[in-house]
């Protein structure tokens, strides 16, 4: 990476930081800014190894008057958010979305050349891209800590940086942009960064739609235009008009797993909001096209459609506009609970696509290809990707909720107790009812409120066009009957709409049996008739890692995918794997390109679904340039995995992984499940108890309010450890596994061989290296010093930190490096730049947690808000927190 690129990033960090300093000085006085600078200086020198400065930082923070605690936390939080803006801007400008390894930035043009050199014909390249189905599923997991109103200001700040950089020849533009920048930073400083209420599921869906409106609406046609140009150069033809290699789905308003706030009514409202927003966006496109397509030359088909008029394109577009306005009015009336009494509306993708295609073909037929391939082509591409609903809405529910419906139903009908039946009995009953023509559910059946809610969700499915909905996902699926139950409920209540049904395998045991379950399922003729030749399976990363530890979970996920690929090949079924990844390494996170290419060969065969959640949606898709690059990375990785798949692992590598996973799993369980001090230590040393008050997402932080770690959702589990910089879920157990192997003959050599030759293992080690660099055991030790009194808990904390340090040493040994991130300088620089601003927030958070506990949670509103701001600031500084 050149010196100039570093300078660009540093310059923008300085511009934003200076402006923030002036804003704070105007509000609180220069003396307060001097306090901030003193704190930062202590933190910076402490980071350089000055232990006296570290102690002075803590002492300085502890002596701050109470009135200063909130503004100090806000100042550091704001700077970290501004640093993120500068880095995002840099990445967009220099097309650096993933800084994984030098030279690893995937470029689609280079991949097409490599694929041709490997023997793939130009036609094969076009066919692969045209048939590719990559669905990015936007989810509302509660790790986006920044309010939407601030995100909008931050986007405007990014635009100011662009204006300043491009104003060299027009200094007056630079002056205007600088003035606007100062105004926006002042607006951000004077805006409360913490929500006062949790967002509702509808709020979360609106946030997702805003990403489409503000970024993806522009990025999608740009992405396809770039693809077209590449294919014209490489293969001499365009991407087919209806091709959509990258599509979008959503869980926002559909994911009811453990979230009682997502109801059938909410799902219906979110679907209507999507229709309204889509109509509103298409109206803008159609108005532009009506203005631009003033041509009179048209083919006979278009003339037959509109009659002999002077401006045939405008005539057709005017009719389409009227229908689209009616569609928007209909959606608004439905949302408001009013009767709609207007004209005909657009209900399906084809009703919008067909008239636009008629215009396109007519222009091409009369020699106006240049016009056809302009704004009209962009709109056709949008329709191919977004349809008339913006996203496909997935639905997710726990297997136990469906089983509860069947238990109540069989009991009410005098058929026995479904819960008492074994798997064979359940399958026999469900398959018979799937074949039966008579209804199973009585029309006026009185069931529990919980079961009524499940049935109402299937009624929503029945009322929708299938193209508005994605997949029905069953969490905690363990048996074929879990899938058959959903198929039966869909038949009984869902009418003519049949959605793909994806079992989600997430615990270690369920992952180990995933292949067997799907094999049994596909062998059932009654199910196969429903599924036809496609099967989707979701792999859970979050709960499996929480259940088994990261290393054992990663290997279980890999083996489950291999098994599923083999099973589906045996049955002649096309498999789509749905990866339930989070933003952190502990939840399967990491650079998308590396992650996809580290999957088993054959598991990415032109199709892939993957969750994009929380703050990662903003980091990857929040701005058009970044979104464009993110889509290119996904397309590039899936195409490479399809045409140039990685080799299968060597048999002795498998044996190595089996042993490593066994040792890591035992070590992880020995602490998390079997050490009686672990849960008390976790509760004492992390802000887990306070996290529930941080109004992040609509979903509760726990599945149940009683119990231990097993009841905690995977996201707050990760979030809490990240706040104290121990990052425990992503590494615990790995140190024992690697250390033991290195002590054995040939251990180091075989691990290095696996690292260099096996993408799965190499990617795992690289992600572990990044995580170790972000962790900081000294900070974790300070939390313990401030918050933990019990000697046995302190002893556990000391052991955990010693385990971490042994792991760091052994990873450096395997990588043959002196220090972490030697080969990824941008990530190293980003961490180093942020640490002096994150460190004070850690010190303040530990202090505020102790005061909160001393006061039994009754600290002042300002101190409570300051505690929340420390969490938001640390999350912003570390970026991938959930």
TrEMBL record:
Signal peptide start-end: none
Required cofactor names: Mg(2+)
Pfam family membership, one: PEPcase
Family annotation (InterPro entries): PEP_COase, PEP_COase_bac/pln-type, PEP_COase_Lys_AS, PEPCASE_His_AS, Pyrv/PenolPyrv_kinase-like_dom
Active site annotation, chain numbering: 141, 546
Enzyme Commission number(s) from the entry: 4.1.1.31
Keywords, comma-separated and alphabetical: Carbon dioxide fixation, Lyase, Magnesium
Quaternary assembly: Homotetramer.
Protein family (similarity comment): Belongs to the PEPCase type 1 family.
Name this protein carries in UniProt: Phosphoenolpyruvate carboxylase
Organism: Halomonas qinghailakensis
Lineage, highest ranks first: Bacteria, Pseudomonadati, Pseudomonadota, Gammaproteobacteria, Oceanospirillales
